[in-house]
Design a protein that fits this description.
Mean pLDDT: 94
Number of helices: 8
Strand order of the largest sheet: 2-1-3-5-6-4
Distance between the termini: 32 Å
Helix content: 25-40%
Radius of gyration: 17 Å
Structural class: alpha/beta
Largest sheet: 6 strands, mixed
Order of helices and strands: EHEHEHEHEEHEHEEEEEHH
Strand content: 25-35%
Length: 225
């Protein structure tokens, strides 16, 4: 059953269909399963699809329902990939896998990390930063007014809040790829756009979903960084 899709609500603006089509040159069907009812989304996945991406508000529900949970799902209690296997439904978190790849490529002088935002992206970034060996602290949106300083900051809030002009770091990765607010802010060295995280999690995730290497060049061209 070579059908794939994305479950969540809403998903009409999701970039996953564009990236998936580019990754496999359109040879696989990929549908938007747009419903606020998790049970309906789950049943449609079970009945008609080999694997699906999972977006809000279903990531925690998907993790809880899966039969087999990858270590990063156990750590974050969230899944954004479900795959049907002979052993049952397998859950993964490519947000974690993608950001870990990005963070692992940073220079050796990055030792401390501040993760701003305690949602799904923030939890993925927190565990990825810890896995990379950084001394890591999580900040919620109301904890940065006095400023935050670290070698690396991963900004996972959906919008600007009080204190963002007082963030200081060598590298800042912003999770929000649709409406970023941190590019060009003072006190930041290298800025990494959220589109890089989006593409990297797609690269890591689509291999898990299909079992085939995606065309990474085509993915990058479909959503330029």
């Amino acid at each position: 059953m070579n059908r794939f899709g994305i479950i969540g609500y809403p998903v009409h603006n999701a970039k996953s269909p564009v990236l998936f089509a580019a990754a496999y040159h359109g040879k696989y069907q990929y549908d938007r399963i747009d419903t606020p009812d998790f049970e309906e989304a789950w049943q449609r996945f079970i009945e008609g699809y080999h694997a699906v991406n999972v977006t809000m508000p279903f990531k925690m529900l998907a993790a809880a329902r899966a039969d087999i949970k990858a270590p990063e799902v156990e750590a974050t209690c969230a899944a954004n990939i479900l795959v049907r296997t002979a052993r049952g439904i397998e859950a993964h978190n490519s947000d974690y896998l993608g950001v870990k790849v990005i963070l692992s490529k940073l220079s050796e002088d990055i030792r401390t990390a501040a993760i701003i935002g305690g949602g799904g992206a923030g939890k993925a970034a927190l565990h990825a930063a810890e896995a990379c060996g950084f001394s890591t602290r999580l900040y919620h949106h109301d904890e940065i007014e006095a400023g935050v300083e670290a070698d690396l900051i991963v900004f996972c809030l959906p919008k600007a809040v009080e204190g963002i002009d007082r963030l200081r770091c060598k590298v800042l990765l912003e999770a929000n790829y649709k409406d970023p607010c941190m590019e060009g802010m003072p006190g930041i060295g290298r800025y990494i756009h959220g589109r890089e995280w989006l593409v990297q999690q797609g690269i890591e995730g689509y291999l898990l979903m299909s079992g085939e290497e995606p065309d990474t060049t085509a993915m990058l061209n479909a959503l330029p960084l």
